[in-house]
Automatic annotation (TrEMBL):
Assembly and binders: HflC and HflK may interact to form a multimeric complex.
Classification via InterPro entries: Band7/mec-2_domain (IPR050710), Band_7 (IPR001107), Band_7/SPFH_dom_sf (IPR036013), HflK (IPR010201)
Gene3D superfamilies to which the protein is assigned, alphabetical: Band 7 domain (3.30.479.30)
Main subcellular location of this protein, as a coarse class: membrane
Residues in Band domain copies: 38-218
Protein name: Protein HflK
Length: 327
């Protein structure tokens, strides 16, 4: 019997008993639902999806709603590329979400030997991100554990190149910088697909048996530095002031010397000018000098009476009583 497509319009769908429909009719519907369900996925904002087709890397998927081939022909591995991950060495923070954040062998991790053959306990952390998801997933087996091993090796190398004093006191920043550079170089060499953001030393101490003695030595060194700073402060306060006073006295002496020289040169110039006039008219010059000198001297002598040598009859001319009373 041949089926006519126009017969679909004459079917009363409300009276059909679907329970009696052939099972084969439900198979396409079920397959369609599974296909839709397995072809849609979502990539979170802090992650990136790595799409695998039959186990082979195909592409990266950015955050958002995405589609892939259904029926697990393509699978997606989510990698948190924007999340900053952390690993702790020599200690462990409870409640961490990263399974490789700390190790159970913390005591062995923090025990190190410095370049001068002294023991030290070093605790540090590294912060990193996933930079290349495909390398992180497929290039190296257990990249996070590999990173722990590399970090411990690098830190032992860097600490082993320095003395115990540098490790515990003044060399911490240099150790962090060198460890960061060397760790990133090895991570790139092994193609782990990671980016190291920071290497930070936490607690760096001598072994427990000698820690008290080491603290006493550090305290003595701090007191020594404090005394040196106080002495330098006094030196910087006294010496500049004395230097300033000495410079002031030198400048005053130089000014006085310059004044005396100028005055002497002025006297010489005035004498030469008077001498030149004297050569032109000696008598007139003598008379002028005498008058100018007396003009300066007489006002300082008080009240004086000058008589001509030819004067006679002195008493009638002067009122001595009036003069003596005023005097």
């Amino acid at each position: 019997m041949k089926f006519d497509p126009d017969d679909w319009r004459d079917i009363d769908w409300r009276n059909i008993d679907f329970g009696r429909l052939p099972v084969l009719w439900l198979v396409p519907i079920l397959l369609l639902g599974i296909a839709v369900f397995t072809s849609v996925y979502t990539v979170q904002a802090e992650s990136q999806g790595v799409v695998l087709r039959f186990g082979k890397y195909v592409r990266n998927a950015e955050p958002g709603l995405r589609f892939k081939l259904p029926f697990n022909m393509e699978k997606v591995e989510m990698v948190p590329v924007k999340r900053q991950l952390k690993q702790e060495f020599g200690f462990g923070t409870p409640g961490s979400t990263n399974p490789t954040q700390y190790s159970s062998e913390q005591k062995l991790e923090r025990g190190m030997v410095t370049g001068d053959l002294n023991a030290a306990t070093v605790e540090w952390i590294i912060q990193y991100r996933v930079r290349e998801p495909e390398l992180y997933l497929f290039k190296v087996r257990n990249p996070d554990n590999t990173l722990r091993d590399i970090s411990e090796s690098v830190m032992r190398t860097v600490v082993g190149d320095r003395t115990v004093d540098e490790v515990i006191t003044v060399g911490r920043q240099e150790i962090e910088a060198d460890a960061l550079i060397q760790l990133q170089e090895l991570v790139d060499k092994f193609e782990l697909g990671l980016s190291i953001d920071q290497v930070q030393l936490k607690n760096v101490n001598p072994p427990q048996a000698v820690q008290r003695s080491f603290n006493e030595v550090n305290q003595a060194q701090q007191e020594r530095e404090q005394l040196i700073n106080v002495a330098n402060g006094e030196y910087n306060k006294v010496v500049p002031r004395a230097s300033g006073e000495a410079e002031q006295m030198i400048q005053a002496a130089e000014g006085y010397a310059l004044k005396r020289v100028n005055e002497a040169e002025g006297d010489v110039a005035r004498f030469n000018a008077v001498f030149a006039e004297y050569l032109k008219a000696p008598e007139v010059t003598k008379q002028r000098i005498y008058i100018e000198t007396m003009r300066q001297i007489v006002p300082n002598l008080g009240k004086k009476i000058i008589l001509d040598e030819d004067a006679s009859q002195l008493l009638p001319m002067l009122q001595m009583s009036a003069a003596s009373s005023k005097k």
